[in-house]
Amino acid sequence: MPLTIPKEEYVNQGHTACAGCGAALAMRYVLKGMGPKTAVAIPASCWAIIPGEYPYTALKVPLLYTTFASTGAAISGLREGLNAQGKEDYNVLAFAGDGGTADIGLQALSAAMERGHDVLFVMYDNEAYMNTGIQRSSSTPYGAWTTTTPVGLKRNFKKEKKKYVSDLMIAQNVPYVATASIGYPEDLERKVAIAKSIKGPKFIQILSPCPPGWYYNTADTIKVSRLAVESKVFPLYEFKSGKFTLFKPSKTTSIADYLSLQGRFKHLNDEEIKSIEEAVEERWKLLLKKEQN
Ligand SMILES: Cc1ncc(C[n+]2csc(CCOP(=O)(O)OP(=O)(O)O)c2C)c(N)n1
Ligand SMILES: [Mg+2]
Question: Does the N-terminal or the C-terminal CB of the chain have fewer CB atoms within 10 Å?
Fold first, then answer.
């Protein structure tokens, strides 16, 4: 596959992300694809901290911090304000965590998509509220330990299934919806390029592994990202002009391999792992059916 990753960098050195932060790579790749004429809105999250303290910023593009719930409204205003100034050539990007997208930001996101603004909303999905100390979100998967789903003697790990915001965006008929992975950067870059070329609302959900929140070695971020896709735990798909396409990895791996690399799943017994395997298989079949429709 030809190298399709732009050389330009828009995330400077000196940012404050943790070692091995998947979300830092996600931003780096997305901005490479979006280019210098991009205004970014970021709600409360790790990424509200990563660029550094005002008046400094590690991002080379304009940045607007928003309240947790209002990212969708903020990018709507940014877009229309730029258009009013004749700056239609600027891209407007939201970069929000799973808490800021699947939970508290969902209403404003849905509204922005419905109004049809020319914006890209990226959800960097580290599957918990990491910045405030690993609390569960609706995007945390079944089985995970978090500080609000502590395992302990009562085995209170997360019992509910992950909410897939990308599926919701398809149900809302957003013109371009994709899931992506930092373990497949060329595919991610291609999806960003498509999103950039479409006038209207776009949504991309990027799985962004988090070493301190998922309890794995900081050197394993790409390995964990790839295993998530190869085990079908985090399927990569695209929805464009009403057509759904599912990426079938050439190499597959067992779900147990993916889970065993991460301390957040270490308490799970064989039966619980089996129930995860069944749920993943069931979802995969549903996605295959979607592709045939
Ligand atoms: C209304 C409101 N409630 C709670 C907070 C505290 N808070 C700041 S960041 C954050 C976690 C955000 O989680 P997520 O969106 O998943 O991003 P991550 O931290 O994982 O990058 C929370 C709860 C806040 N800033 N505003
Ligand atoms: Mg998060």
Answer: N
CATH of the domain at 235: 3.40.50.970
Total structural domains within the chain:
1
- Give the tens place of pLDDT for each residue, 56-78: 999 999 999 999 999 999 999 99
C-alpha–C-alpha distance, residues 95 and 200, integer Å: 17
Do residues 168 and 144 make contact, with C-beta atoms less than 8 angstroms apart? no
The DSSP line for 219-236 is: GGHHHHHHHHHHTTSS--
Residue type, 18: C
Is 45 in contact with 99 (CB distance < 8 Å)? yes
**pLDDT tens by residue, 269-284:** 999 999 999 999 999 9
Ligand 1 atom with least separation from CA of 100: 15
Instruction: Please give the number of the atom of ligand 1 that sits closest to the Cα of 131.
Output: 19
Q: Is the CB of 65 under 6 A from ligand 1?
A: no
